[in-house]
Amino acid sequence: MTTAHPVILVVNAGSSSVKISIFSVPEAAHEDVEVLPAQLAHGQIEGIGVAPHIEGRLADGTVVADERFPVELVPDHDAAFRLIQARLQEGLRDTPPVAIGHRVVHGGMDFADAVRIDDNVIARLDALVPLAPLHQPHNLTAIRAVRAAAPDLLQVACFDTAFHAGHDPMAQLMALPYEYYEQGIRRFGFHGLSYAYIARRLKQVAPDLAEGRVIVAHFGNGASLCAMRGGKSVESTMGLTALDGMPMGTRCGTIDPGAVLWLAAQGMTPDAIQAMLYGQSGLKGISGVSSDMRALLASDTPRAKLAVDFYAYRAAQEIGKLAVTLGGLDGLVFTAGIGANSPDVRARVCAHLTDLFGISLDAAANGDNCQRISSDTSRVPVLALQTDEEGMIALSTAKILLNGG
Ligand code: ADP
Q1: Pairing of strands 382-384, 18-24
Q2: How many whole angstroms separate alpha carbon 199 and alpha carbon 192?
Q3: Ligand 1: does its nearest atom lie under 6 Å from the Cβ of 222?
Q4: How many CA atoms does the CB half-sphere of 383 hold within 13 Å?
Q5: Which residue, of 203, 233, 251, 359, has the fewest CB within 10 Å?
Q6: What's the CA-to-centroid distance between 178 and ligand 1, angstroms?
């Protein structure tokens, strides 16, 4: 691809995929700019180490890459980045990127905002690897690969935890001996880039709501909920790691810690337990069918139905819990792959919320994935909004590029 203007790259390195988006550099970058930087193209390599597949599209949908590779050619993330770098060098020959923004899952207690990456930042992110074992190492692999190839290029880390950095100790504590809290063993919360985008979007589409007590449900492959007051996060269902809270595609969500002790007592190693809690649990574990919500909704096996029912029940429970934190509820927003696109899941969650919160959906608006999906008589407005984590990363990166931070 050839573009006429300088570009910002956004890198989102997941456990088996790397997503790259190309954005134009905006004229101005600050919180109040109406529109996020324009996305010019998006590409991804999925199935790293299993069935590698690279694809890329321009913003108008034109396919510019669609290729499958033998697994020996892309066995790991290092190889995936080399392949991506080669493709980007070719595609962006005339306009090399002026900055790269990375999604970084864990910023721990150190980072309450996006940060320019240097050796010191890399060392501090490295120390957080045990708290996000399936994501943070890949985030760092991407950062190091760019640093090796272009040491002077501006790289910015944008954190999933940062939006929650202002949480009160009530939202951060776990009832372990206090010295662990002091060492940073505390609840952080994740999906913050998505929540920051929704807080911003609410100001545009429902300014009254944006000022109020709102629960946002980010339901994608990972899933969590966030309680916001006046657009600021006050509580999240995720904790020290991205395992806590809602059951997810393959992650367990909240479980009795005694279950982990029981597994260990059966002789399972920490690595095996970790692999199970992150990769074999949640919707996949319960259904035995798939981690993918669309596949479960299409399946007629009793366990697929059980998994979806449990998901909706647990989501509603978490909403009740967060409403206690907020002291009431002025609005509910669904977002991410499932939240923004699945009328069925939203209806199942909201069915649990009718008696307590007077929530009712407009079946047609919900079925059409409209922005406002609650009925006129619903005591609490309910919205379905697309999220844009990559746009938020592009904005934060542009802020550091244009304003120095
Ligand atoms: P990630 O967390 O990897 O970014 P997404 O936000 O894209 O994931 O969410 C992926 C999930 O969204 C999958 O479970 C997928 O089945 C689900 N999903 C996407 N579209 C729909 C839909 N129309 N109906 C139900 N589920 C959907």
Answers
A1: unpaired
A2: 10
A3: yes
A4: 22
A5: 203
A6: 38
pLDDT above 90 as % of the chain: 83
Decide whether any atom of ligand 1 lies within 6 Å of the 220 Cβ: yes
Whether residue 315 contacts residue 354, with contact meaning beta carbons closer than 8 Å, is answered with no
273 CA to middle of ligand 1, Å?
26
Write down the CATH number for the domain with range 7-159.
3.30.420.40
Domain ranges (residues) in the chain: 7-159, 207-384
Of the CA atoms within 13 Å of residue 39, those in its CB half-sphere come to 20
**For residue 2, what pLDDT is reported?**
46
Compute the distance between CA of residue 31 and CA of residue 280 in angstroms, rounded to an integer.
Answer: 39
Residue 272 token pair: 């095996």
Taking the C-alpha atoms of residue 303 and residue 297, their distance in angstroms, rounded to an integer, is: 11
The CB of 341 under 6 Å from ligand 1? The reply is yes
DSSP string, 270-292: HHHHHHHHHHS-HHHHHHSS-S-
Ligand 1 atom 13 nearest Cα: 292
Q: Which of the residues are catalytic? A: 160
Options 3.40.720.10, 3.30.70.60, 1.10.1760.20, 3.30.420.40; which CATH number does 207-384 get? 3.30.420.40
pTM: 0.94
Closest by CA position to 237, among listed 219, 210, 211: 219
